[in-house]
Amino acid sequence: LRAGTPVVGLPGYSGAVGPAAPSSGAPGLMDRDFLNTPPKKTVRFGGTVSNTLAKLQKGDTSDYELIKHQLSDPDIKKLPWLGRSQAVVEEYLAFLSNLVSAQTVYLRACLRMVVSNFAPKRIRIQEGNVDISDSDDEDENLPRTFDQCHQALQLIARYVPSTSRFLMSILSDKFPFVQKSSRTLECYVHNLLRVSVYIPDLRRDILELIISKMLTLDVSAPRSEIEEVESGAQQDANGASQDDCLFDMDEEEDSPLDSSRPDRAVMVHPVAERLDTMMTVLLAYIEDICHVNGSLDIEKTKALYRDLLSVFDKVVLPTHASCHVQYYMFYLCSFRLGLAEAFLDHLWKMLQAPNQPPVLRQAAAGYMGSFMARAKFLPVSTVKACLDLLVPWLHLYINSQDSGSKAFCDVNLHGPFYTACQAVFYTLIFRHNAILEGNMKKGLAYLQGLNLERIVMCQLNPLRVCLPAVTNMFAAITRKYQLVFCYTIIERNNRNLLPVVSCSTGGSSVSTNTNPLDTFFPFDPYLLKSSGKLIEPIYQAWEDLVSSENIQYHFDIVPQGSMEEEDDFLHGDSVAGMTPGSYDSHLHSPRSVGSPPVSFLQRPF
């Protein structure tokens, strides 16, 4: 409270003073709308603070001690300032500024108060002791409320320069549980990203917090599960009621039909829907930060790229089998070729760095291959430049191992080498047409110059550990253009493939490990509908490549025991309709990925 401000009632107080008496003084800056809001019980201390301080200077401490006593009562509630008139909000913000600048001991409490309003409140209606309604607050003034929260936070940061030191832990602690509704997560993430705009020192930490939470959702929703739920909902759309949808028992989960956003494509899978919402907000933030008046701002884009790459190295790259979160780098790199080349160069340096853990080197190779295969915005010249780095490195590795004591097939010894081989094979499956088109003779000369036969035939035997789908497609393509004849090696590997016997309470089972590298392709088809509209135009789908391709398969290479697992890859006489992707996926690109993204808060950052 400031000098000159009337000491108005504190709503919710239930002390012995009793109900408020009518005010005999002027209302000061408090407008009539606020004064007419009926609190349950209020207290008044008498005149203005300035009068009380004037009495204190003259030795009359009675009013001053009364104020101190009443304000020290822990049962007094906070002033419900949000959503009030502009005069009330301005007065409260002035009080907040004075409080944190004069008494920094209250800084954390004030920050927690502001951040706690970054998500809509829950409205619970009860009859007796039974909840009959529990949903997000549908207040139409929510954007205005958020604006007032950010205004308060900016004022605090202006008066207390050390705010950023204390704010990050509060933002993390207040982050909603990932099982909360999509709308709650959307609002909170949007508000965190707004904070990063006016407190830029926190941007990297805020991005790391958001992306870490998104990864938690991503790894808990496997690709196969999302595809199963979405395809099942599509099949049942004409006959089944939305009330019978799967997962509708959780009170925090969103209904597949969101009446507040009728033009938004909604995922039926609840975890995928939350992730889709958060991805939409994050991609919109990246777009807004990098573009000013519709034009790419190079310096701002570079700065954001550095922050997002740091987060990628720290939390995304070490995460195995994430399906969607890594696409924020894919989307950012599409803005400018230099970003894509810098990303590939970063991955290349990590792959060849012997001081990096093998698991990260393998992940880097997987990202390189998947990015080169799927990035439609990547020209063939950049792809060839990357192959000109990868393939010579493979030959040098073979030179160092072929005559040594470790020149045999072992994933634990040569993991980065095998993953790099698979990245090369995978890239050529997707990009061989682009390399050959225009000048077939020149393209074939380039492919022959890679000396792929030496890699395939070496003692380390990379075809034995690569994914069967990749191996078979690579073999078919290289046979068509007479680059390498892989089938002799593949048949020998299949004969030497030992089954693995596993025992459990249900008995013993015999299986063959067809994915010894534990491979996944990070840029396999994007399944999220709303945010997917931003990815679709820049993504190379497999179906677009095979429309005119006619590559015959050599079916005798498939061993008896693995035919059931490989049906999705080897059904038919050509590669059309098959996608070389992660082993546990259905390996097809979605042909329809929903409507354009419409976020709840379509506000520029």
From TrEMBL:
What GO MF annotations does this protein's record show? RNA polymerase I core binding; RNA polymerase I general transcription initiation factor activity
GO cellular-component term (any): nucleus
Segments carrying the region annotation (Disordered) are: 581-605
Q: Name one Pfam family in it.
A: RRN3
- GO biological process, alphabetically ordered: transcription initiation at RNA polymerase I promoter
Xref: InterPro entries: RNA_pol_I_trans_ini_fac_RRN3
Give the UniProt family note: Belongs to the RRN3 family.
Official protein name in the record: RNA polymerase I-specific transcription initiation factor RRN3-like
Q: To which species is this protein native?
A: Sinocyclocheilus anshuiensis
